[in-house]
Write a structure and sequence with these properties.
There is one protein chain. This protein is α/β, with parallel strands linked by helices. The protein folds into three domains: 244 residues, TIM Barrel; 204 residues, Class I glutamine amidotransferase (GATase) domain (Rossmann fold); 94 residues, Sandwich (Immunoglobulin-like), CATH 2.60.40. The chain has 14 helices and 30 strands. A nine-stranded mixed beta sheet has the order 11-10-12-13-20-19-18-15-16. Strands 5-4-3-2-1-8-7-6 form an eight-stranded parallel beta sheet. Strands 9-22-23-30-27 form a five-stranded antiparallel beta sheet. α9 links the parallel β7 and β8. α4 packs parallel to α6. The radius of gyration is 27 Å and the shape is globular.
Amino acid sequence: MLQLRQRQIHLDFHTGPAIPDVGADFNAREFARTMKRAHVDSVTVFAKCHHGHLYYNTQRPERHPGLRKNLDLLRGQVDALHAEGIRAPIYISVQCDEYAANTHPEWVARNADSSQVKWGKNVFDPAWQILDMSSPYQNFLYEQSEEILRKFKPVDGVFFDMCWDQPSTTKWAIAGMRRAGLNPESEADRATYARQVSLAYMKRFYALSKKYAPQATVYFNSRPLSALPEDVVALTHVEIEALATGGWGYLYFPKHVRYARNFNRPYMGMTARFHKSWGDFAGLKPAAALQYEVSQMLAHGAECSVGDQLHPRGRLDKPAYELIGNVYGYAEACEPWTRNVKAVTQIGVFRAGGQAYHDTPGGPNDGVTRMFTHLKLQFDVVNAGSDLQAYELLVLPDEVDITPALGQRLHAYLKKGGKLLVSGLLPTTLPEMGVKVVGESPFTTTYIRFGKEISQDVPATAHVMYERGVRVRPLRGTQVLAKVVEPYFERTWDHFCSHFQTPNLPQASRYPAAVRKGNVITIPYPIFKAFGTHANLPYRQLVKNCIDLLLPSKLVEVTGPSTLEVTVMRQAKRTIVHLLQFVADRRTQNLDIVEDIIPLYNIPLKLQLPTKPKHAYLAPSLEKISFDYANGTLETIVPQLEGHGMIVFE
């Protein structure tokens, strides 16, 4: 398998034509040495930016007008980086090209009302115009890309950016839809055609890249990771762009890496040094935040990429690379334990609905990731084509549709002794679930009363459920684990009680809130969406206690706060447990940040291992730790944790 570099920089350079002194301060040796001192081993450098300008010697008119006549900025970067042993993949902007949009406005993608597609509310916003890849622009881009690949042959890699599926109603898009037997008036058909266009041009540009550089990495960015099953044919690896403070949040990367790592491709995470997002000139995030983001990548077996934007004059920001260098120095020290690893998991969680780049905040994918991270459960995110037999427990959270094909695979999985947890509105059921769906609950808000089998650590009262559930009836042989308590009435404008939801009736209804039949537990509520939206602790405890019935022996158990993250990785004869304790604080309405690292001490850890290890130590310090081992279970105490730590058993 292709081996990526561990400590990468993604260097933007989106420089408008009004900037006059492009590259005026560029010094190739200083540029490369700064990267080397910061422990960087790969830098994605720019051939073409979102403004549509080129930064190398070319006769094409798109060359940046402010770039000095004899300055080949890209050549200077590539050659200087190579002299220091640093990779230099090349960046090419795809659907964002202001030069092409202004020169050929007919190539700009159009909405159904014929207005231009633009990252802005109106035509006067300072925002990118979006090009239609079914127009002649695609050939224009192909010519640019071929020149770059030819001039810099053989390139280390190509990073094509801004490559989402863009519906359009230009004359070329309409003609293409008609040729494909699609209806341009249909929103669904426009989306289908956009997907076809994307797949076709990705394969075309992948083939072009490989023609000139067979060993090059090739990646198409800005695509929803839900599209990976089809996209992977045109990707040498997977990059998870996740600027935690730039709108992605601290849940985006761990939510998606558990899916992306299952496609037999190397994978990396991408954050940035900015306080906020791309183009945040002079915005520098706290050291603890970058330490967390990079450590989280290491803990999930991902290579690391940190985004930056070079100042138009061409000089790197020294404090930014001191910040990056401190974190990357630590990552380099960890490298012996983070390369060529594979996640060890017990649970496969199906990805719930949605094809967008960003899920709806608070949805089931957020809820299950946050909940299972709190519970220290080791899980992958899977789809209907995954190897289901690799998991002791499968979870179908809330919005997963059990198609006939998936139903057959689940039947086979359960027949071989697999275990299943299903939640949500249950449009389709399996016979093994042991329930009959009566219909959607008439009540927006109901209550849950836990049965004794799942009452561990739950106050003995009715617990409010803020999301509407489904009424089900248990069939013969089905055990009721919790019951629904319904309110006196549905709250309306002319029929309500007090400030919020209607209070509960004293007695439970005849409808269950959780049932078990053999190896299958069903919760007829969108419990993961409810937790992702409301963070009500009884929801987490309900799921935990149900999983305890199905999976009593956990791969790893760590006693610590809910903010303590745990992952388990396997590397040859080593098992490595990563612990992360960073607390993101909501400092503004829409920005979480990590500023302080608060240490933990004397952390109890239990790990299931088939054989007794010979050695146990902390990495990268190599400090030995003692442990007990009996009947396949190892127990130890981690003496201290400051942010990120690795406990190695070999």
